[in-house]
Write a structure and sequence with these properties.
One of its GO terms (cellular component) is mitochondrial outer membrane. By secondary structure, the chain is of the alpha+beta class. It has 21 helices and 21 strands.
Length: 718
């Protein structure tokens, strides 16, 4: 094969006449360009490390400070209050500098120290300012004078042109709420769900915990909060995600959909070419930290960017007790799955990223490859869809050496995983319900063996050109993946584009080596009522923050729901209860976002109790409560990429996830502009009490009823 010959830089043979040495100039050239590319990336990382390390100052500000200090010294003014003189006397002991040199060195040392002190002061001042969250509790659209002054101060200390990770060291730590406050909020959240006798018993358990065991656990938790950058995130990742022994498919992984109405091309290879190239452009921006940090409140308040670090070159590795996350600094290939076969595709040629037309060419080569799957290869990825313990044991027994290890390494060390699906999916106007159900199911689980569920994400391209993503959850939350996906859809449609015949723009390149088939050796035995409601909120106002639970089924929301089905209630009474329920819901969201939530605090107290080997009936009962309704939204973050007023057809349905409880629902929703809300509703066929279509019908009816309260018809344009 051509790639095998190009992979060898030189060959030699021993003959009776001596050693015959043959060198491949093309291979040596590719090695040189690859090395040059690697050194460029290292230099960019080094440069970005310096820029981020001195933020909110800039490297050039060091020169300004030093020149300023030297200028005052030559003007016979001592800006150091005698410190420069002390440095000078210390340098005297070396005896190897002239007096002029010592003077300059002393000034530079003091200037550098002053510069570092200014950076630390600005950074600490910004951290103190960002610890204020009063702005979140003000009425929407109205800012108090205090908040305006505070915003002005934040902008002063925030520096100019921040990079993705510039604010990380300035973000405050997530505070630990008081035990009694969390217990009170918990009791308030479960009161509408319990009978009076059950609530009395739970109140007694909760108050006993708050007085006796709670303060002891809280002491350890506060100790951790002083030591760790975030007292929740590492335990949340380990105990909620990595120690989970159930399948990732449906239970943990989630999906994102393509544009709803538009398919830019029906050529599968072309759509894959543009999509893969757009993803790689995003990775390059991420490596260079050119992605702007997310800022709230008029581009003032930064959110934590830590979750971006493991987006690419990442795989979840199964273990018998706990999984681990393997992340590489770089990866120069992807792995593509098609018709039961795995192909390794290099992403660079001549020291540059493959262009969209070249990637299309590589994908087309895979689609046209007539070879059949090797024994056991076709459904190999089903191992990643199963329980974690059998997969961990199988991986250790059969994938620890030889060609299986090499091929598995290629998959796990790939930048990401690509599936060329053989089905056609997407919205069909003649049968929207069935077509969207099929599309969502394919993205959520496919055929169980055609997605590598352990990869940070699998990029899926269907036969008719539709695309989507299935993402693993432990490394980051959905808004991070959503940010990438928004960029990919916008870049594909508005920047890269296609030719009139549907191919990627540009020319093919016959010199690019063919994709490489991965080789496997698979032994034969290895083939083949009101409910507690979870709504996710984010805590990324704090360093390394992830999510917090909003218990949205409150007494106020229950009163509103009961009023809506009570014919004796007037519209005015229903509106009043609606506003009360909405205000309560917003308050719960604000409390969750500012570190005063319920569930993460109780979860961490439970972890501490396990470490201390003490039993808490209250905590055990709280954490055993089933979340029968799990809801979440992924709001658009880069609205500037899509102008829906001018391009109304370029709208995406967002993505979704599976139900948390066997007898529950998973509801994902996305607010698209001012005129559209999309819902993804999932439930298990095995439960006779749940029906996603019935739930969706009831949800639509409930929203229509709420619209009617305000005097609008469901199709009103107001």
């Amino acid at each position: 094969m051509a790639e095998a010959h190009q992979a060898v830089a030189f060959q030699f043979t021993v003959t009776p006449d001596g050693i015959d040495l043959r060198m491949s100039h093309e291979a040596l050239r590719q090695i040189y360009l690859s090395g040059l590319h690697s050194w460029k990336k290292k230099f960019i990382r080094f440069k970005n490390g310096i820029i981020t390390g001195v933020y909110p100052a800039s490297p050039s500000s060091w020169l300004i400070v030093v020149v300023g200090v030297m200028s005052t010294m030559y003007a016979k003014i001592d800006p150091s209050l005698g410190i420069i003189a002390k440095i000078n006397r210390t340098l005297d002991t070396t005896g190897c500098m002239s007096s002029q040199t010592k003077k300059v060195v002393s000034g530079v040392i003091f200037g550098t120290g002053l510069w570092v002190a200014l950076i630390v002061t600005m950074r600490y001042s910004l951290k103190v300012l960002l610890s204020y969250h009063g702005w979140m509790f003000t009425q929407h659209g109205r800012l108090s004078r205090t908040t305006k002054i505070w915003m002005f101060m934040v902008k002063i200390f925030s520096g100019r042109k921040p990079m993705l990770y510039s604010f990380q060291t300035s973000l405050p730590r997530l505070p630990v709420p008081a035990v009694q406050d969390t217990v009170n909020r918990y009791l308030e959240s479960v009161k509408p769900l319990m009978k009076e006798g059950d609530f009395t018993r739970m109140t007694a358990l909760a108050q006993d915990f708050a007085v006796n065991l709670g303060p002891r656990l809280q002491w350890y938790l506060k100790l951790k909060s002083w030591w760790a950058t975030n007292y929740v995130s590492d335990w949340w990742e380990e105990y909620i995600y990595l120690r989970g022994r159930g399948p990732l498919m449906v239970n943990s992984n989630y999906f994102a959909m393509d544009l709803l109405y538009i398919i830019p091309t029906h050529i599968q290879a072309a759509r894959a070419g543009n999509g893969i190239h757009a993803i790689l452009l995003y990775r390059r921006k991420l490596d260079r930290e050119e992605i702007k940090p997310i800022l709230l409140l008029g581009s003032t308040i930064p959110l934590c960017s830590a979750q971006w670090e493991r987006m690419f070159n990442t795989s979840r590795i199964p273990g018998e007790e706990t999984d681990t996350i393997q992340h590489l600094r770089d990866s120069k290939h992807i792995v593509v799955f098609h018709r039961g076969r795995y192909f390794k595709v290099w992403l660079y040629h001549d020291g540059r990223l493959l262009r969209p037309r070249e990637i299309e060419q590589q994908v087309q080569r895979i689609l046209e490859d007539p070879s059949e799957p090797q024994p056991g290869e076709a459904k190999l990825a089903a191992l990643t869809a199963a329980d974690r313990v059998p997969w961990a044991r199988c991986r250790q027994a059969y994938f620890g050496h030889g060609k299986n290890k090499q091929s598995l390494d290629a998959v796990e060390k790939a930048a990401f995983f690509v599936t060329l699906d053989e089905t056609e999916q997407g919205y069909r106007e003649e049968d929207p319900e069935t077509s969207m159900d099929s599309y969502a199911k394919s993205l959520l689980h496919g055929r169980c063996f055609d997605r590598w569920f352990d990869k940070s994400f699998t990029f899926i391209v269907f036969k008719n050109g539709k695309m989507g993503i299935n993402a693993e959850h432990s490394w980051a939350d959905a808004p991070i993946m959503g940010h990438l996906w928004e960029y990919v859809m916008a870049t594909d449609s508005f920047q890269l584009g296609y030719t009139e015949d549907g191919h990627c723009k540009g020319d093919t390149n016959p010199n690019i080596p063919y994709p490489t088939r991965l080789q496997w050796d698979i032994p034969e035995e290895d083939m083949g009522k009101f409910s507690l409601t979870y709504e996710a909120s984010m805590t990324r106002l704090f360093r390394e923050g992830r999510t917090e639970t909003v218990r949205s089924c409150t007494a106020e929301s229950c009163s509103f729901v009961l009023a809506m089905v009570d014919p004796t209630q007037t519209v005015e009474q229903k509106l009043k209860l609606f506003r009360i329920a909405s205000e309560k819901h917003q308050l719960l969201y604000r409390l969750a976002m500012t570190g005063a939530g319920i569930d993460r605090h109780l979860f961490c107290l439970y972890v501490v109790s396990k470490y201390l080997a003490v039993d808490s009936p209250f905590l055990k009962e709280v954490l055993a409560e089933p979340w029968r309704l799990s809801t979440s939204q992924t709001p658009p973050q880069q609205v500037e990429l899509f102008n829906l007023d001018r391009n109304p057809d370029y709208v995406s349905c967002g993505g979704g996830f599976g139900p948390v409880a066997d007898d529950g629902y998973g509801v994902s929703y996305i607010l698209v502009g001012e005129d559209l809300i999309n819902f993804h509703i999932s439930s298990k066929f095995s439960c006779p009490e749940t029906d996603s279509h019935r739930f969706g019908k009831n949800l639509r009816e409930a929203m229509t009823d709420i619209i009617s309260l305000f005097g609008f018809s469901p199709n009103s344009k107001k």
